[in-house]
Amino acid sequence: METDRNILTDERWSAIIHNDASYDGAFYYAVKTTGIFCRPSCKSRVPNKENVLVFDTADAALERHFRPCKRCRPNGLRLPDEEWIAQITEYIDRHYHESLTLSVLAEMCHGSPYHLQRTFKKIRGISPIAYIQKIRLSKAEHLLKHTDMTVMEIALTVGIPNTAHFATLFKKRTGSSPTEYRKTAKMGQGGSI
């Protein structure tokens, strides 16, 4: 239940959008879409106001299953690298079809692009961009096997707007063009080509 102390007032919203450190410790704010909570002074991108929840304490935010921001470390809390990378991986898995760059991911997860690149590669064994490509091409394989979408539609659906680039990446991963892959998959399923 939301109490008066947990309402996003104009004063609190102003503290958030102006990164006002004088409010640190007075309240914490969480962003529903990212699952992260911050101090008012956090330098991360300003969230959409309708996605913000306010908490009196860091513990209250943790109880609601929000994770502490890696950038501002509310109340001195730190995320282990494995948990941070798991959070980023989950985000990529849900948003692979969007325009994802290292800068976009770093901003979303409240870290620097350099630290994200280095830590992701240490934990996952590949770079974030290589992981995004892997997910996109895996989804493309599924769509080629199980739909009648055109190669261009599939490329757009998985987040690669350039069809020629998509075909090149796909062939590098599978050894065949998207069209050849589809024909082989359909023959393997007993379908006609």
From TrEMBL:
The keyword Membrane does not apply. The keyword Transferase applies. Its cofactor is Zn(2+). Gene3D superfamilies: DNA Methylphosphotriester Repair Domain, Homeodomain-like. GO terms for molecular function: DNA-binding transcription factor activity; methyltransferase activity; sequence-specific DNA binding; zinc ion binding. Keywords: Activator, DNA damage, DNA repair, DNA-binding, Metal-binding, Methyltransferase, Transcription, Transcription regulation, Transferase, Zinc. It comes from the Bacteria. Signal peptide: none annotated. Residues 86-184 form the HTH araC/xylS-type domain. GO terms for biological process: DNA alkylation repair; methylation. SUPFAM superfamilies: Ada DNA repair protein, N-terminal domain (N-Ada 10), Homeodomain-like. SMART domains: HTH_ARAC (SM00342). InterPro entries: Ada-like_dom_sf, Ada_DNA_repair_Zn-bd, Homeodomain-like_sf, HTH_AraC, HTH_AraC-typ_CS, Me-P-triester_DNA_alkyl-Trfase, Tscrpt_reg_AraC-type_HTH. This is Methylphosphotriester-DNA--protein-cysteine methyltransferase family protein. It comes from Bacillus velezensis (strain DSM 23117 / BGSC 10A6 / LMG 26770 / FZB42) (Bacillus amyloliquefaciens subsp. plantarum).
